Fold this protein.
Amino acid sequence: MNPAQSTARRKPATPPPPVSVFPFNSGSLLSVSDLTLEGVGRVLTRATELEQMSPLRRGSILAKRRLALLFYESSTRTRTSFELAAKALGADTTLVSSLSSSIEKGESLKDTGLTLRALGAEGIILRHPSSGAAWLLEASTRLPVINAGDGMHEHPTQALLDLRTLVMHLRPGLREVNDQTLAGVTVSIVGDVLHSRVARSNMLLLPRLGARVLLCGPKELLPDMATSSGPGIEIERDFETALRASTAVMMLRIQAERLAGLKLDLNDYKGKYQLTGQLLATHAPKALVLHPGPIIRGMEITAGVADGPQSMILEQVMHGVAIRMAVVERALTSAGRPAAQEPKKGDLA
Amino acid sequence: MTAIAILGGHLMDPSAGVDAKKDLLLKDGRVAEIAGPGKLKGAAGAEKLDASGLIVAPGLIDMHVHLREPGQEYKETIATGTAAAAAGGFTAVAAMPNTTPVNDSPELTRWMQAPERGAAVRVFPIAAATRGSKGEAINDYAALRAAGAVAVSDDGHPILKDNVMREALTAAARGGLCVIQHAEDTRLSQGASMNLGAVSFKLGLRGMPSEAESSIVERDIRLVAELRDLHPHLHVAHLSTAAALTAVRQARRNGLRVTCEVAPHHFLMTDEHVGLYDTHARMNPPLRATADREAVIEGILDGVVDAIATDHAPHAMHEKEVEFEYAPNGIIGLETALGLSMRWLHGEWKMPLGRVLSLLSAQPAALLGLKGRGTLAAGSFADVVVFDPRAEWVYRAMEGKSKAKNTPFEGWTMQGRVRWTICEGRIAYAAAM
Ligand SMILES: [Zn+2]
C-alpha cells in the first residue's frame, strides 16, 4: 500500500451535502429549526398580543387575505385551531381535504399547490401523512407554507404551543426568551417517540431554550439513535426514573396506524408506560402533564390524570389558537420576522 | 466501414499491460494494428483522429443499467440510454431485465439486441433469473444464454427463497452464467425509503437496515459454499454496506467465486446527502452511513470490489417531484461515472489510472465473460474510449444525452472528458469541439 492510499483511507474527502435552500419564503414555518431563538420569542410575544387584542382590531390584520388549509389527513384539533386562528385575523380560509373531493384523484401535491396558488391562495397550511411533504410544497409553490404536521417528521406549531404552555406555568410574566429560559427544566417525552412528529419538533426546540429533554419508551418505539437528533436529548427507559426527574411530562399516543410490522404487546406497554394517578402522585406530584392529543384514555394516560389538576391538555389547545394566530400572521405579513428581511406592510400595532 | 486511425494518444490497456504512447488502427470492427507513434503500417485511407494529449483506453463497460425499454420508454429507451452511455465513454452496457414485460425470455433477449432498437453501443441483456422475476421458478438459462444473455438477475427484487437461489446458482453454473443478486431482505426493508440511522430518524422516514443487504449476501455465500463443486459465480450488485463487503472479502479468501460491484454514489455520498428530502438522493440500496462508505472505498482501493457499475436508473422528472416516500428509487449515472471515478478514485484517492480503467472495463468484461472486450489487444473488438484525463468540467444533466435528468451530481466537478467513443469500429460519440 502506498502512503497516498493510506491517507485516503483515513480521510475520504467528498463534496459535503449541499447547504439547505429552505425556506424559500421567509413566511414559511416548515420546521422549528427555521426560527431563530429571537424568532421563537417574537412568536410567543405576538401570540399574547394578538390574544389580548380586541377582536375587531385583530380581525383587520389579515382582512380578505386568502389562506388555504390543505389537509391530507383528518385532524379536528389542528385544523380547527388553524381555521379559528386565521379567521380571528380576518383571513378568508378555504379547506381542501383529501376526504372531500377537492383533491383530484391522483393529482400530485405539486400540482395541487400550484392550483391553489393560481386560485389566489397567499399561503398554505399543510397537513400530510408523508414526512417532508411541506418542503416539497414550498419548493413547488414558493408560497409561505406552514407545516401543520408532516408524517412522522415535524409539527412546529405544536412544539411552539407546548413551549407557551411550559413558559406560562414555569416562567410566568416572562418577557423574552433566551437559551437559559428553561434552564433547570426537564421535560420527559414518553411513549411512541419513533412515530411522533410532536416529539421531533419538541426535542429540537426545547433544548435551545435550555431545557433537558428526556425521551422515555421501549426500544421498538424509541431507538437509541433518537439522541443524535440534536443537543440536550437523553434517553431514560425507566418511566418512574424519568417521572422523578420531570418538571413536565409529555405523553404521546401510540400511533397504531403507523405501527406496520412492529410487534408490540399493548398490555405490556400499558404496564410500563401508562401515566396513572398513582405514578404521578408518587413520583411527580408537581409535574405538568402535557399531551398533544388526541388522547386515548386508558392507554397512554388514565382518565383521572387527563382530567386531573396537573393536566395541561385543554390549556394546550387554547395556547394553540394563540400561537397559530402569530404564525399565520407571520406567514402573510412581515410581523414576527426580522425587520430587515422585508419592508413593513402597514401599521400592525 | 472505413478504418479509423487514432494517432498520438497514450494507450492505457491494463489487461494487456500497455501504458505507453501508441497509435491504433481500427478496421472491420476490430483492433487491426498497434504501433509506436507514427509507425502504423496500414493507416493509409483511414479516418484519422488526433489523440495527442489524450488517453486511449478500452471502451468502458457498465454491467448494471436500466434502459427501460420495453415498457417505460417515457423514462428512457435503448437508443437514448445507449447514447448516454456513449457520451460517458461506455461501449457496452448490461441491461437489467426489470422492463415491462420482464425480460425472462429468449425472444425478448433477442429483441433488445435487434438493430431496430437503434443502440449506439452494444447492449448485453441480463435475463431474469426467475419467471417474471417473482423469485419462484427459474428460467431456462441455456436458452437465454444462447439468445445473448450474459448473466441472470432479478434486480430490483432479491431471490429470497433459499431453494430457489440454490437452484439458480446451480443452473447458472451449469450454463456458464453468473447470478447477479440484488441483496435486500425485503422483510427487513418494508416501507423504507432510505438508510436506517440517525438521519432517517431525524427525517421521520422509515429506514432500511444494513443487515437487509448483508444477511442476503451472507446467505448467498453459504449457498455458493455448499455448491462449491459446481463453482457457481455469485455477483453482488450495487454493494453498499461494510458488512456485505466483509462477507465478500471472506468468501474470496475461502476461494469462492463471489464478486461485487459498487456504484459511484455509494463511494461518494452518505445518507446525509438526502438533505431535506432530495428525491435525487433516493435509490436502492440507499445512500449509507459514513462507516459504510469508507469501507466501500477501502474495498475499491484494496481490490475486493471488482467493478464500478452505475445502476443507471432513469425516471421522468415528474416522478421524482413527489413526496420522498412516494418517489421511485434510482438515479442516472452513465454520463458521470468516468468523471467521478477519475476525479475521486484517481485524483483524490490516488488510485492508479490503469486500475480505475480496469474497474470500468476489463474487470466487468471478465465478470460477464465478454470475450475480446475490455482490452485493445490486436484482434479484439474496436471498442475504444478516447478522453482528456486532465479536463475538468461541471456536469449539467440538461446537457446530457439521457432522456432522464434524475441525478444527485448536478453541478459537481468532473475530471476527464470523453472526446470519442468508438464501438466496434464506429464512432458512437464525438464531443462537440
Ligand atoms: Zn438493484
In short: The interface with chain B takes residues 1-2, 4-5, 8-9, 12-18, 20, 22, 108-110, 128, 130-133, 135-136, 140, 150-154, 194, 197, 200, 223, 225-226, 228-229, 260-261 of chain A (CB under 8 Å). DSSP finds 13 helices and nine strands in chain A.
